[in-house]
Every structure is written in structure tokens, then in C-alpha cells.
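This is your field. Have a critical look at both lines of this record:
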Amino acid sequence: MTIIPNDFSGYMVVVKQDCSTCTLIESVFAELDATYSIRFYSQDSLNFPSTVSDVIDDTALEVSYRLDIEIVPTLIQVQDGEEVARLVGWKREDWRKLTGMKQLGESLPEFSPGCGSKSVDPGMPEKLAYQFGDTQLQARRIEVADLEDEIELAYERGWSDGLPVVPPTEDRILRMLSGTTRSPSEIVGIIPPDNVPCTVEKVAINAVMAGCKPEYLPVVLAAVEAACIDAFCMHGLLATTYFSSPVVIVNGPIVDKIGMNWGINALGQGNRANATIGRALQLVIRNVGGGKPGGVDRAALGHPGKYTFCFPEREHDSYWESLSVERGFSADESTVTLFGGDGVHGIADQHSRNPESLTKNISMTLRTVYNSKIVMAADALLVITPEHMRVFRNAGWTKVRFREELSKHLMISGKELIRGANGIEEGLPVHLEDATLSKFRPDGLLIVHTGGGAGMWSAVIGGWAASGDKGSIPVTVAIKS
């Protein structure tokens, strides 16, 4: 919609009576009105300015929205329907230069800063964007009675993961969409298990419900894209009776930009970005794809990470290259990696001061992933904390060296693994008794660095038993703005 007629040349002034600067310079408006072709738009009263011949009603704030008014008074010079100059607030010399009126406002103070436009009041930009902007939401509206509890409604309709969700009102959705340049109608992916096309708008709705801020939305979108990659096998992770679900690892400059926690309690509660990004992904799977417990989600036990499991890598002081760099991205790219993981299994080692001892200890815990007698089934995510990292740093071990040494300790004799060994019926077929086997498939062990600076603990997050080509493979995607 065109606010300024193509044949108009002159001045436009946007004001509100509830502004001390606007009332201060009301005499200036009269001088301008008597001299030029001028349009006055009032945000709050058709009787202000009272000194001019005509006041145009902008109480709906459409003109202010379309002209991007942030401060009143705003003086705009127009030539043949095009804005050529703009002033905000009152600065006498500037107004005189722009209007060519050398005596304008002679009796007034030289300067007054103006006031905030009503169009930028809290919550108003989103409401105006919905009313007058180009973005039109496509999602179906749910009418809520005045006395109906919106949070309880979400529970009743099955939209919640068991915790309260933020009601996704239109203004909140539009505010969320401001966090990305992508079109609300763009298809992000086909969400399992129901294979439903998911738009950016639908992701934004669930990000609102999860409690995200708009600046988190690009990360959530990347996580959803990753979950839709066939190799990740999101449907399988839902349908298995095992415990696995997506673990979201974030790398790159966006980590600090949006305030993610890579320090104390990095895998725990307390950080809004960590908590809500992972939750938003889970809500998309639930609400768009239909992946609800008791339906396709058949986990025998599940684990708390199925609410949310998202953390960033600690890169700023890491001795090793990051996970995303290992996986082919540059250090200045922001990425999301999805790993099909279960719960956190701690590694305690407060005595090892040489890398050989610490590596052997870590390998003993890694051997227990999924089952100590099963190899090349579940992948694993190894989380190294700073105090353990220091042991490798002091010894000059690179990540490649650590992997090589760790791999040696993860080669296991078939005699320990076959069925019946150690009186345990679970295990590998007897014909593998004389083999020496790797605990993990090639590329089946991810290694990241995160956590607080004190505490000689690291951790293992085990993977789904069906890791690899016949199940779930970790995937990494770049985060788009």
C-alpha cells in the first residue's frame, strides 16, 4: 500500500498530543501550515495540533508503521511522492534548513529530543506487522474464550511435552519470525513420523511455545532441517523402544551471539537458549510430525533429554579443533550437529596426570556404551571437560593423536564378547571368538569439549543401538540467517 501519493510534493509531520516536544512546537506547525502544502498525522487525537487546518487520523498507526516512525515529531520532506529528507525531534536550525524558513520557531528553545512513537510501544510492532505488513500467517486460528486458561488448553489439546508452553499468539509468532530472513511459507522439511511438510512459520510457532527468543530461531530451523535428513533417521529414533532422541550440538560464532552456555552446567538447566532450542525441536516433532509417546514414540523408558538436549561446544579456549571443523566446516561458520543419543554417563578421573592413563580410563567407560559385550552397534558422543582437556594440552596431544590412542584401547578380544562369556548370555556369535573387534564403527565416535573449568569429570552420551548406515548417522548443517 502506498502512503505517499505519487503527485504529492511538500512536507509530512507525524505527531502525538501526548508528547511534550510536539506540544512545545505547536506554533511551528501553524507556521508551516500557513506556508506549505503539508500533511499532519496525529497518533492520538484529531484535535491536535489545534493550530492547523486539517489533521489526518493515524490513531490506527498504519501511516506510522509504513513510514517507519520511531520518534515524534517526525518531519518528512517529499518530492513527487518520494521521501527526500527526514528529521526527528526538534532542532531549530535543522528544521529551518530543511524548510527554508529562517525565522521558524524563533521564540522556542533550540532543541527538544522528542518522544517515542506509539508505533514502537511494547508489543505494538508485532501487532502492526500482522495488521499492515506483508507477512500473513497461514496457521489455523484457535479461538480461546475470555475465561479459558490458554496453558490448560494446550495440555488438553495435546500440544505440550508435559511442561507449560507459551501461548503462540499472532504477535508472538511475528516477533519470532523477525529472527530470520527466511520466508514464513518456506518449507523447512518433511517432519516424521507423519511426514508433514513444515514451514518456517510452523517452526516459529513451536519455538514460541518452547520459550525461545527470536534470535534463536535460525538455530531451531537448522536443527529441524537436520532432523529431516534421511541419514539421521528421526522416524527410527522415535519408533525404537530404546531411549535415544536428538542431541543438538551447536558450534560457531552464534553460540556467544545468542548467549548459549558452554561453561558450568552446560548439559543442565538454567540457560534459556540451551533449554528452549532443544525443546523447540522436540515440539516440532510432536506437534507437526505427530511423534507423541504412546503413538509412534515407543521408548520403553525414554530419558529427560527427550524434553530438551542442546548444548554448545566450548571453542574459545579449546586446544582441539571443534566438532564442526572436524566435520568439514570452517571455524567461522555456525552449525548444528544432531546426534541420536541417550542419557549422560559420567567419567570420573581425578588422578590421571598423563594422557595415557586418562585415555585408558575413558576407553573403559566407552566400552560400556549400549552393552559392554556389543560392538559396532551404538555410536557415542564423548564430552571432554576443561580439566581433562588440560592433561592432553600439557602433553601436546592433538585430537588426532587422542583418537588414535583411544582407538587402540577400544579394540576388544572376541573372547570377551561372545555369548556366554563371563556367564552372560548376551553377546556376539561364537564364531567371532578369535577376532579382535573395534567397539565403534568408523566415524562412530564424536568428541566435543564443553563444561565448567573446575572438576575432573567428563562424560559419555551413548547412541542408538541402530547407529550407522542401517540406523542413525550424526548429521551437521550450517545455520542460515
Observations:
- The CA atoms of residues 346 and 459 lie 4 Å apart.
- The radius of gyration is 30 Å.
